[in-house]
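Subgroup meeting minutes
Present: P.N., E.W., G.H.
Scribe: E.W.

1. P.N. recapped why we're keeping a running log of single-chain structure predictions: easier to compare across weeks, and new members can see raw inputs and outputs side by side.
2. G.H. added today's entry (203 aa).
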Amino acid sequence: MLLEQFNIGPYQNFTYLVAESEGGEGVVIDPSFGIEPVLTAIDERRVKVRFVLNTHSHPDHIAGNADVRDRTGAKIVAHRSAPLHQDVSVDDGSRVDFGRLHLQVVHTPGHTPDSVLYVFEGHVATGDTLFVGECGRTDLPGGDPGALYESLFGPVVQLDDAIVVLPGHDYGATPTSTIGREKKENYVLQPRTKEAFIRFLKE
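Output recorded in log:
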């Protein structure tokens, strides 16, 4: 599998290029501002990009959608509730296939109502639901701390500890982590009630 992480744009965004191999079919996850290095890598690796996958609809995660689509003919994929153009609408449990690989979609509302994870080949692209050592904010329009609690302490912590976390921003001590490490070290994932979690986020 080919997996490349790009730190691009003014907000330390991570954009990912995932493919079965060089010259094989692939996807781009969360194309941000300043997408040119990703487009260059697509050309150099000869990746046939089939889909652009958005973890949520905030501008810094979709800014490069049109550029990737226009260069590659890829289809835009997002949660069905996302307020953006989407060629393929997904929901919790949906599967996206490309080449020999596939991704599972996990709906994780909280940061936004349309936030999703993409789980594939021992990795999970978490967008702004989970960062290394942090979680996404809930004080923007559509944010819901109660929903984020349900997402983090439901489907996120139920993922296998060995799964590699691919966050949406370079906000942590390292650019990637694992679910097991985050459960041990990330202070937002320490056991607390839903009410305590909501108070904690507001503080």
